[in-house]
Amino acid sequence: MGVSSAGGKTAPVHVLTERYDRGRVPRVRRVQPLVRPCKVKRGVRLIDDAHRVEHVLASLLVESSPSTHAMRRNVGESPVLGLKFARCRVRRQAAKCSQVQLLSPRMRWNHIIALLGVFVACLEAHSVERRRRRCEDALIRREWRTLDDEEKAEYIAAVQCMLDKPSRSNVAGATRRYDDFVATHIIQAEQTHFVGFFYPHHRLLVASFEYALRKECGYGGAQPYWDWLLDVDDLAASPIFDPDTGFGGNGEWVPGTHARPWHTMELPLPSNHGFPDRTGGGCIPDGPMPSYGEFVASSEPNAHASGHYGVGGLYGAMTDKWSSPVDPVFWLHHANVDRLWWSWQYRNLPGRLMDISGPLVSQDWTNQRGGNITLSDENLLVAIGEGTSVDGTMDIRGGFLCYDYDGIY
């Protein structure tokens, strides 16, 4: 397999011939023996020293940033040298790259540089195209109390519309469109709580609910959020629970056989449990949470869980790990949980858009999958039939998502 050299011997030839103008990076492969040297055609580069070129390209594609995370799961053995060679799917490719051929014997190094330039141009085009796709008309999510009464009524009507529309899933027991979202949360609860998927999954879930409100029920606004910090002095007095312009409060107490003494009794709370009196150090805007793993470990069982228990109490729907979305306040609560994550991301946006970690399954359970979450893992909503990669949900203002908040922490 080769071409005739000056000495009459046959030099080995390796040809790289796959066109990659649709976002596919070419693969090096062996071809049938060539009868004569290939002629230089328009749009084709003839390169010598295929071994060295392949080594450089492999290093370039595997190590290059910012596109590395989009291709890391598509690395295979090169049939030429046995090196790791990235067969990556460069998505949303902007540049039209030419067909490339690698040949030996000796030819000039400027051809090698030209080929590397093509690859660099392709990778840079991918990065530029991704930035170009950043949404220009983002939905702005606002805090519930900043909505006027008409806007609040429109949102509540859209939620009621979801309760009236028939289910679009095949989940047993799901009869209404709203049930499809509850079913998704129930089915995937064990895979999306106390694991790395917690924030990406719930970000996608809330965004999908927001999309359904707008596209299926004619809602003209964005998903509102509930900033709990505004109600710390009197949670029950929050406008979220207004009986007319909110989601209702506790209602009137109806005594009955369920009202046993130990359910209704009031007990004094001791003021001193051995902790010294302190006034606190105030708000810590940055927090000792430099990594995603530390952030989720601190916020999921505290700020997130407190919102659920604060509304649901001991036995309410919001307290249930699986079926908490049956309470419509869930969506406003989790929109603020997402806002909390975005506030943390925004403080170091370039780095934290790619900062993800954590186990795939809770440490309380055993599972054969094991391992840790990565940006290329699939982020799915099984009962709704939607999904993207984890990478697709890291940025709320580009790629798969397109919304923002009226303010962050």
UniProtKB/TrEMBL annotation:
- The answer to whether UniProt assigns keyword Metal-binding to this entry is yes
Show the InterPro entries listed in the entry.
Di-copper_centre_dom_sf, Tyrosinase/Hemocyanin, Tyrosinase_Cu-bd
Domain Tyrosinase copper-binding: residue ranges: 327-338
Listed A to Z, the keywords are: Copper, Metal-binding
Q: Under the GO molecular function aspect, what terms does this record hold?
A: metal ion binding; oxidoreductase activity
Q: Indicate yes or no for the key word Metal-binding.
A: yes
Q: What is the superkingdom listed in this entry's lineage? A: Eukaryota
Q: Which PANTHER family match?
A: TYROSINASE FAMILY MEMBER, TYROSINASE-LIKE PROTEIN TYR-1-RELATED
* Entry protein name: Tyrosinase copper-binding domain-containing protein
Organism for this UniProt entry: Magnaporthiopsis poae (strain ATCC 64411 / 73-15) (Kentucky bluegrass fungus)
What lineage is this protein's organism placed in? Eukaryota, Fungi, Dikarya, Ascomycota, Pezizomycotina
